[in-house]
Amino acid sequence: MITREQLNSKARKQIGIVIAAGLLLLVGDLVLSGSSGALTLFKGEDGLYLMRPENSTGSISLRAEIDSGDVNMAKTFGITLDPRGGTEDDNEADKTPDSGEMSREELIGYQLKSIVNSMNDDTSAKKVYLPSRLDTGEKIKWSVEKSSNGGIIAFAVMALCFLIYRNRYNPLKKIQKQESDSITRQLPEFVNRLVLLLNAGLVLNTAFARAIEGSGCVAAGRQDYFYSRMMEIYAGMQQTNSSFNAEFKAFAKSRRTAGDESARELMRISNIISDNISKGVELTDKLHNESELLWLARKRSCEERGRLAETKLTFPLTLFLLVLVAVTVCPALLEL
C-alpha cells in the first residue's frame, strides 16, 4: 500500500532532480551566452568599437536605440565580422532613398541596416567603430543585447516543481478512487447475497463465508479490492476467532478515515448488524432495505458515468464531423 510518506519522499527526489537539471541548464546557458560571440564591445576615445577577429568570424548581438524627440525606436542586429585580412564584401554602395518615398522611421531603419551591412567592407581595419549619429543627425545609443534564457529556464523549473508538489498524492487518490468504485460496485450484490443466505436459515458468520465463496470475482480469480478485503476479514475471523461484526466495523472505520464516500454505506450495514446482536432487531428485513438503497445508488452512479462519457465524446465527435465535412466538400471545391 502506498503511503503519504513514500509519495512525499518520491516528490522530494523528483524536485531535487528537476532543480539539479535546471542548475545545469542555467550554467550551460550562461557559458553559451558568454561565449556564443567572440566579439566584445569596447569604449575608446573615439567612441564605441569592435575588435575584428584574427582567424575566424566573430558575432555579437547589438541593440541600437534612437531617441530624437519625435522618433523613438530600437532595433536589434546580429552582427558577424569577417576575420582580419579576409575577402572584402563586394556590395554595391547603398543609396539613401529620397525622404519623400518613405517615412522617417523607415529611413532611420534603412540607415541602421546600411551601417551594419558596411562593417565588412574593409577587413583590413583592426577596429570597427560604431557611429554615434546617423547621416540625418539622430543620435544612436549602442548596447549589447543579452541572449540568455535564464529567466525562461528558472520559470520552467519553478512551474515543474510546483506541479510535482501539487500532484504528489495523485497515485494515492487514484488507488482510493479504484477502491471506492470497487466497494460501490460489489457491495449491493454482496448484501443481497447475505440476505438470501440468511433467509435460507444460515447464521451470519456462515452466510458471510458462503457469500464470499459464491462471488464471481473469487470464483474467476480476479483481483477485486472489496472481495480481497472480505477474504482478509474471513481469514482474520478464523485465526483470531473474532466476530464478523467486529471485523466489518473495523473495515468501515478504516474507509471513513481514508475519506471514502462509500464509508457511509459500510457504517450503516455495520450498525444494522450491531443492533441485531445487541438489541435483537430484525436483520434480514433491514439488510434487504439497505440492499435496495445500495442498488439505487449504484444505478445513479452508472447514469452519472454515462453522462460523463457522453460529455467526453463530444470533442472527438466534433473532430470526426469536421473531417467528414472536409472529405465531402474538398473534392467539390477542387472541381470548381
From the alpha carbons, calculate the radius of gyration and give it in angstroms.
39 Å
- Strand segment count: 6
Q: How would you write the strand order of the largest sheet?
A: 1-2-5
Gap between N and C termini? 66 Å
- What's the total helix number? 11
Shape: elongated
| Low-pLDDT residue intervals, each spanning 5 or more residues | none
SS strand fraction: 5-15%
**Biggest sheet layout:** 3 strands, antiparallel
Task: Give the fraction of residues assigned to helices.
Answer: 55-70%
Helix and strand run: HEEEEHEEHHHHHHHHH
Structural class: mainly alpha
Oligomer: single chain
- How confident is the prediction overall: mean pLDDT? 81
Give the helices and strands, then pairings.
Layout: H1 4-35, E1 41-44, E2 47-51, E3 58-67, E4 72-81, H2 104-117, E5 127-129, E6 140-144, H3 150-166, H4 170-199, H5 204-213, H6 216-220, H7 225-240, H8 244-257, H9 263-279, H10 283-312, H11 314-334
Antiparallel strand pairs: 1-2, 2-5, 3-4, 3-6
Helix pairs in contact: 1-3, 4-5, 4-10, 7-8, 8-9, 9-10
Can you describe what's shown?
The structure is a single chain. This protein is mainly alpha-helical and 336 residues long. 61% of the residues lie in helices and 11% in strands. A 3-stranded antiparallel β-sheet has the order 1-2-5, with no helix packed on it. Strands 4-3-6 form a 3-stranded antiparallel β-sheet, with helices on one face. The chain has helices at residues 4-35, 104-117, 150-166, 170-199, 204-213, 216-220, 225-240, 244-257, 263-279, 283-312, 314-334; strands at 41-44, 47-51, 58-67, 72-81, 127-129, 140-144. A hairpin with a 2-residue loop joins strand 1 (41-44) and strand 2. The chain contains 11 helices and 6 strands. Helix 9 packs antiparallel against helix 10 (283-312).
